[in-house]
Structures are given as C-alpha cells and as structure tokens.
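Reopening this one. Same input as before:
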Amino acid sequence: RNHVMVYLQDAVRMVLESRDERPLHTIAKYFQSVLHGSHVLLREFTFINATPRNRLAFVRILIDTFKGFNIDAEMTVSEHRQLVCLLCPDFPTTVHEAMQPHTPRGGDAAATYKYPVLSALFQVLFVFSEFVSHVHRLFE
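Same output, byte for byte:
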C-alpha cells in the first residue's frame, strides 16, 4: 500500500550503481529526493508509474517545467504528449489516447486545445489512473 519496496529496491540499485564509499549518505540523499518529489526526473516510465507518489511527483515536475508556457497556446493531444516525453522519453501513448474521448471536441485527433485544458486532463487521468481504470471496469 505504501510501496516501500519500490523505493528500497531503487535506493539499493542507486547505491550499487554509484559505488559510493558512503552508502548510507547515498540512501539518505535518495529518500530526501523522494520526499521532495525530484526522484522521478528523467526516469523511465515504469518507475514513474510504479506508485501514486511517483505519478504525482512527475505531474508536479511537469507543472514546474512548463509554468512559463503560454496558457493561450493551442496544441493537439499528440503535441502535449511530445512535451511530456521531454521529461520521460519512453512515456507511452496510452494516457494520451485515453485523454482523447474526454476532450471538449470528443476525440477529434486534429483538434487543438489550450494548454491548461490538456494539462488538467492529463493530470487527472495520469495521477488517478488506477481509480479511473477501476471505475471504467465497473461501468463497462
């Protein structure tokens, strides 16, 4: 439920990769990054998606990275995915495909939307993906 093993395994991997002479310092630094949410920056999708905390941390980094983005900028769902891929190159198309039917124009792939609209939709569907999947299965 708290996904401690995900973080312990990741911390051990980091210690083994770094071969630091002070492994406890490396572990402490790692858990500080988990607490601050910076541990998901430029990580692979499987790790980012592994826990709700990781998904939320990724969304926060995405918001911080693009906070200066022109809020009136129009873009397609596919173009929004390209922005996301700047922070996670292997981010799959599935989340953005799931966004398409929920957009104001109901699935038109060529339609453009203001950045805040797509950003909010992405945040909800990604952070709460487990809940959304569960509800979707209930109503199928």
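So the earlier flakiness isn't reproducible anymore. For the record, The chain has a mean pLDDT of 90.
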